[in-house]
Amino acid sequence: MAALWMGGRMEVRMSMRKYLLCCGAMAVCVIAVCVLCVVIFSGEKSGAAGNGSGAGAEAAEGDMAAAGASNAEGGVAGIASGAVNGAAGANGGKEAGSGTGAGNGAAGTNGGTGAGNGATGANGGKGTGNGAAGTNGGAGTPGKGAGQGNAADSAMPGPLSLAGTQLTDSGGNPVQLRGISTHGLAWYPDYVNEACIRQFREDWGMNVIRLAMYTAESGGYCTGGDKEGLKSLVKNGVEYATACGMYVIIDWHILSDGNPNTYIKEAKAFFQEMSQEYADYTNVIYEICNEPNGGTSWSQVKSYAEEVISVIRENDEDGIILVGTPNWCQYVDQAAADPIMGYENIMYTLHFYAATHTDSLRKAMVNAVEAGLPIFVSEYGICDASGNGAIDENQADKWVETMNEHGISYVAWNLSNKSETSAILKSSCGKVSGFAGEDLSDSGRWLYGMLEEVGVAGTLAGGENAGNGNGTGGSGTGSGTGGSGTGTGNGTGGSGAGNGGNGSSVGTGNGTSGSVAGTGNGTSGSVAGTGNGTGGSGAGTGNGGNGSGTGTGTSGTGAGAGNGASGTSTSDGIEAGGLMVTAKVVTSWESGGATYFQYDLTLSNETDTGQNGWTIRLTFSSNITLQNGWNGNYEVDGNVLTISSMDYNAQIEKGGSTGDVGFVIQTDADCTLGN
């Protein structure tokens, strides 16, 4: 009986033990579920967008995470194997990339440095992750993850590549970039701010900005400038452009150094750093030499480019690279005849200024494209090649039409309030963002109007005629009172500009002085005002009184004083190289104590036979320094300038002529031309 009792007692004990073990197991399960829920929800809205170890689910805020677990309000927790990473999201939950491995957080401001797929968004998250609690980490510098966790990841434009001569997106669709270039970052740093760049993206419809970092001028990167400060401006500009969804060109802006090989060591180090920094950015474009000049040959440029490209390709395998061409980026034909081989996504730059470069250079551009050369116009203006002088909207429009026809991207010069025609802001504009119509120069108004016409620009503050209209005078009858233009009018009669009382050349009363008597730039007033000495034509049928400018003549061309520039002058024909050369001083100006002259030449063949190739020599009364030249090969020896033909303008038939040849020189104020 005792044995039976003991056996029954042991059986009860065993059953009880099983019962207790079962209860204990259930309790452990309940606790585990609770812990898991705490883990999932304990991110404390810190923007957890981390990748779960294993298979982290891609989700936006408020979506369901992997394994059916709801997300915290602040972000998405990718769960697998029970691990949740707090890799910071953008302001609480931009989309997290799916992927494997633990995300290592440490997201800073303007984008985290998280590893893995680094799903950090614009403005950066707060949590450093690496744990269930998603504790807050300190602010870091802009960065990106080991994958592609860039600042403003969701806004970054997609990668570009070349299909023949055409830029395309990842789907093979043609892409055309239109935008603006800064002036020298060392001189105009304040325009590198997000609000400014965002306005150009949202109001102007631009999709690219060029960051021009001079290499050799005052404050230049290679001539005593603040290297770290300049690099910081470039990097900030890249981040701002990225946050705004724009492409961005990092421009190694050689100019006075002429030959890019002068500072090739510095260039290689710079692009090594930049390409390593932005290897995973899909919107960064590298421009490795702005404008080779001063007799630098294509073979010299090509040799330089091959070395710098190889450095970039060590880090960035497929980013777009722009290579300058000789003679201030005009000799694209030479690059077409001997392009760089062995690399993909290489483009070649052409620069033009519409009042100087016309049909001949346009034809050279089209010929190069048709020969298979990918061209990118990384700088252009609608004035003359000096960046100053008169505007030629007719030629500018022809350039835009041609570039659009061939899918060529183009970037305008320049974003500044510098007192020169090419600046898009008036010199009186002290703003660095939030520009309105009345802040724009004539170049700025044309640029905005052009972007409006091609259908990309939005609404700009500043009222009617903020774009392409320059406040042109109305058609008023009777007394010829002021026209209907806006603002102060840039030389074409805005309402309230100047003296009023100026009908737009159809007034039948006592309209004073033609289409503009205003205080604008005097570029088309009835008597030249304070513009560039390009007086108007004395429109108006009334008394035709003098304009309100400082010009002393009555409706004569070039009577104005503007910008210290002299009026036009034309030399008598000079016989040179069997041709008759007519040289015209289009404009002259003073800057930094030096005097500059811009010449346009017409070469006429008055012989009995055709000319196939030509060379002319022009002798000046003083030594000269060549600043720019177009549609010819140029050499300077003291006071003698030798110009020879290009392939496309070598032939001059008997009795024929060729134009569009010209140059800018620096010399003494009283220097004259005469052979």
Describe the structure.
This protein has 675 residues and is α/β, with parallel strands linked by helices. Among the domains are: 161-453, Glycosidases (TIM Barrel), CATH 3.20.20; 474-498 and 514-565, no CATH class; 569-667, Immunoglobulin-like (Sandwich). It contains 10 helices and 23 strands. The chain has helices spanning 2-41, 194-202, 227-243, 264-277, 298-315, 326-329, 332-337, 359-370, 393-405, 442-453; strands at 107-108, 111-112, 161-163, 166-168, 178-182, 208-214, 247-253, 284-287, 321-323, 346-353, 375-381, 410-415, 569-570, 574-576, 579-591, 594-604, 611-612, 615-619, 625-630, 633-637, 640-644, 651-652, 657-667. The protein has an 8-stranded parallel barrel with strand order 5-6-7-8-9-10-11-12, surrounded by 6 helices. Strands 13, 14, 15, 16, 19 and 23 form a 6-stranded antiparallel sheet that branches. Strand 10 (346-353), helix 8 and strand 11 form a beta-alpha-beta unit. The longest helix is centred in the N-terminal third of the chain and has 40 residues, at 2-41. Residues 1-23, 32-153 and 463-567 have low confidence and may be disordered.
Question: In a nutshell, what does this entry contain?
Answer:
The chain has helices spanning 2-41, 194-202, 227-243, 264-277, 298-315, 326-329, 332-337, 359-370, 393-405, 442-453, and strands at 107-108, 111-112, 161-163, 166-168, 178-182, 208-214, 247-253, 284-287, 321-323, 346-353, 375-381, 410-415, 569-570, 574-576, 579-591, 594-604, 611-612, 615-619, 625-630, 633-637, 640-644, 651-652, 657-667. With 675 residues, the chain is an alpha/beta fold. Among the domains are: 161-453, TIM Barrel (Alpha-Beta Barrel); 474-498 and 514-565, no CATH class; 569-667, Immunoglobulin-like, CATH 2.60.40.290.
